[in-house]
């Protein structure tokens, strides 16, 4: 029987491990931390008694993933829960735009901009089922649906600020800009529209669901699936050198390119090692979790029903803040994401006190205190918020990296989404998962299709490893 070792137990590492085990390999997963899951963990440690997602919180790509959705994870307890409204973007004066899991309802809510929204996002929503097979893969690969992907690409290649000119209201433009800001990149950069179109289309089809019982339920389901096929997991096992893994036929590395270069050492071809060391990381997240009594007092009633709330004001304000962050300057009003997962999964709360998950975009490796800036953005759209807070837990960029080594400098996207790197991560090659070391493959979020709980990096790396084994 062939054997495999997977280094790292994030969603990609576990997905790759499951795929290898299902094909008959003897699989071991080695995880440096005491708990598995990487960015897909939940705990009650930060806010005792309240269940908090430690990073990944809403999972459109897990629900849409061509691989994860076919694994039968429901057999292992995974249940998706949907908020009433997927996303709300409030503006000053009580105005707000809402993204529903219903393209007609979203368009209707945008008033005079509804038809233009539907022409862009509605069209992508209606072809999302076919688009997702190409979107969640290497962009340099031969597409399975070339015509649908080509039509999407014409819209996706534009900067978000340029695409937003098709709408006339602040509400529609801000809604699009806030979704585009998930790229952690200046909104004037090419291809930032792609992030907004894909995430908005996902919201209008599969939604932005949460996992019942926390994001860790996804990890637990994958671990149970792995165990069913004979795979094992060891925690507290940090791998520093590939020689520790000698004897395994296949190795998957759910780590950053720089970590892969360090682990592989002189087994990595020099040109690949140079590419991995050039790999750039992007801006950081600054996390603050809140225990909030009675919920956040949003001025917008729609925001009180939304799983996710984007805070940044108009698209012009968001663009200014994201540009500053990318340049290494902390904006006075950063872009902030707020998660109200308890609305879809009430079991996370206790006695009328709810866990609220939030993070601000800050410069890479930011060492300052952004708590007040983050709280100020919430208070801006929910006056009186401070009076509802019963406890807080802060985790800045350094703490994020200490908790998950793949979050270099607090970069939860595992790589900058700008320039050539957005198209070809971790390097320009027909097989982005191959390291050049025989039988060793990179499968982290630094590989296509990038960040998100979709498992596709792991699945595709494992598929490449199986093809290599068959040729050997």
UniProtKB/TrEMBL annotation:
- Quote the Pfam families the UniProt record gives: NAD_binding_8
The record's listing under InterPro entries reads: FAD/NAD-bd_sf
Q: What is this protein called?
A: NAD(P)/FAD-dependent oxidoreductase
Organism annotation:
Sinomonas flava
